Amino acid sequence: MTMNPAPMLLTPPFLRHLALLLALLCFGTADLVLASPANVIIRVPTGTPVPARLPELLAKWRQSGQVANVLYLTDGRSEKPERSAKFAAIAVLDFPSEGSCESWLKADAAALPAGLIVRRADALANGELSPRDSNRSIFVVNTYTPTVPADRFAEYVAGYVHPLYEAMRGTKHLVRYTAYLERGETGKVDALNVLEYRDDVAHAAMAALKSGIRQQVAAATPTYAAFDKIKDTLRIDGYGTTATYTELPPPGSQ
């Protein structure tokens, strides 16, 4: 199991929170907030079999209340056939508090099977529509490698990623999104944008709408247009991985 310890903070936490607060004032929406007080992202590397015990452990932690929620995606497939997927499976764990996350990392994370990538992460932007049926949804995880410190990358998410995804959500084809930034040394951790489309029809329809949406957002949002010019200096684009929503085992099945 590859455990990446939390790095030294690049900036004081209040600066990150201040950047998010300023973004809230600019966009006038409560969606640009941490989706959860604490998150851990677990990835099964491409080419590695998904450990049979993984879903059982995830279900156990969720059922016990140690983990508030788990998003479990399997069957990772690259959106570009000439490239490999970024993961075979991925699990996003939402914890009710920083303390509960730290307790889990100290007492329970060691139970995870070897060979997994396990990292703390911060949710920098989130939006969703309800009701939705995730069993019918199409999930896409866009992976990037930031090349700038965390506070600068948070500014990019607030000014570019958030307004774009909000516009996509406005079409009602995108029913949920969360932009995560893993904690760790710049250049050695990833930013993952988890997108949930209503169904395969909505996913296919978005492809034809994206160009027009980008133009509309650029015209209405100065920060989007500014970041669009320099985004390639802020992160390395790792392309998307499509994955399948997978229910965890029910209580008592372990």
Which terms summarize this structure?
254 residues, alpha+beta, Alpha-Beta Plaits, eight-stranded antiparallel beta barrel
Largest sheet, strands/sense/barrel: 8 strands, antiparallel, barrel
What's the order of the H and E elements?
Answer: EHEHEEHEEHEEHHE
General shape: globular
CATH topology: Alpha-Beta Plaits
Instruction: Report the end-to-end length measured between terminal Cα atoms.
Output: 22 Å
Count of helix runs: 6
Descriptive account of the structure:
- The chain has one domain: Alpha-Beta Plaits (2-Layer Sandwich), CATH 3.30.70.
- α1 runs parallel beside α4, α4 packs across α5 and α4 packs across α6.
- Strands 2-4-3-9-6-8-7-5 form an 8-stranded antiparallel barrel, surrounded by 4 helices.
- The chain has 254 residues and is of the alpha+beta class.
Quick recap of the structure?
The protein is an alpha+beta fold. The protein has helices spanning 13-27, 53-64, 98-107, 150-170, 200-220, 222-230; strands spanning 2-3, 38-44, 69-78, 89-95, 117-128, 138-146, 174-182, 191-197, 235-245. Strand 7 (174-182) and strand 8 (191-197) form a beta hairpin.
SSE diagram, text form:
Blueprint: E1 2-3, H1 13-27, E2 38-44, H2 53-64, E3 69-78, E4 89-95, H3 98-107, E5 117-128, E6 138-146, H4 150-170, E7 174-182, E8 191-197, H5 200-220, H6 222-230, E9 235-245
Parallel strand pairs: 1-5
Antiparallel strand pairs: 2-4, 2-5, 3-4, 3-9, 5-7, 6-8, 6-9, 7-8
Helix pairs in contact: 1-4, 4-5, 4-6, 5-6
